[in-house]
Amino acid sequence: MIDPIIDSKKFEELFQFLISKEESGTRLDHFLSKKFTYHSRTTWQKEITEGRILISSKTVKPGVSLKEGDLISYHPIQKEEPPVRNDYKILYEDEFFVAVDKPGDLPIHPAGIYRKGNLLTFLKESGKFKDLFTVHRLDRETSGVILFAKNSEIASILSKSFSLGNIQKYYITKVHGNFPKRKSAYGILKPDLSSKIRKKRTFVPLKLIF
């Protein structure tokens, strides 16, 4: 039986990667902010300044120019992951792909603070799948069917089918109450800071001044 909620986890990881010939000559902070967009350039500069990013085991400044063969090491500060749901269901599986019913409040793949609590990691850690490749995505807050390919060739075929519109996604929204056919309102939509749903907006009415 799968528990619907996974407790918060603390993680401490080390990420390393080599700089290629094409990437040489780029500033370190520019390289990181373009390659890893879950942090802003300002945040990456802070990580570099505080010594969590090293080049060939040495501390550096954000503006250092990268060279081919540089080994960048990133040891992020220990963080606690938010709890996520893991009551996913396997809807279909064959030798080419697997279709999964993803619940809301569950990221599809590792990103930002969600390094362990995500659907792809849960599937791999279940021991039922050797390799899985994402071919499309849904937002963390959105529930729905997700396809994972079992090899890179099938992943390429499915991704192309999505981009060409041969595979279509349909979204269903649940609403409450009786809505009039037409209603006029004057105001703005702002982020709802009281909600844990990142993209939720709230309507703020504005007064008309004549």
From TrEMBL:
Ranges where the RNA-binding S4 domain occurs: 26-89
| Any GO BP | enzyme-directed rRNA pseudouridine synthesis
**What is the source species?**
Leptospira interrogans serovar Icterohaemorrhagiae str. Verdun HP
**Protein family:** Belongs to the pseudouridine synthase RluA family.
The protein's matches in Pfam families, at most eight in alphabetical order, are given as: PseudoU_synth_2
Q: Which SUPFAM superfamilies match?
A: Alpha-L RNA-binding motif (SSF55174), Pseudouridine synthase (SSF55120)
**PANTHER family noted in UniProt:** MITOCHONDRIAL RNA PSEUDOURIDINE SYNTHASE, RIBOSOMAL LARGE SUBUNIT PSEUDOURIDINE SYNTHASE D
The name this protein carries in UniProt is: RNA pseudouridine synthase domain protein
Q: Source organism's superkingdom?
A: Bacteria
SMART domains named among the record's database cross-references: S4
Q: Which GO terms describe its molecular function?
A: RNA binding; rRNA pseudouridine synthase activity
Q: Which UniProt keywords apply?
A: Isomerase, RNA-binding
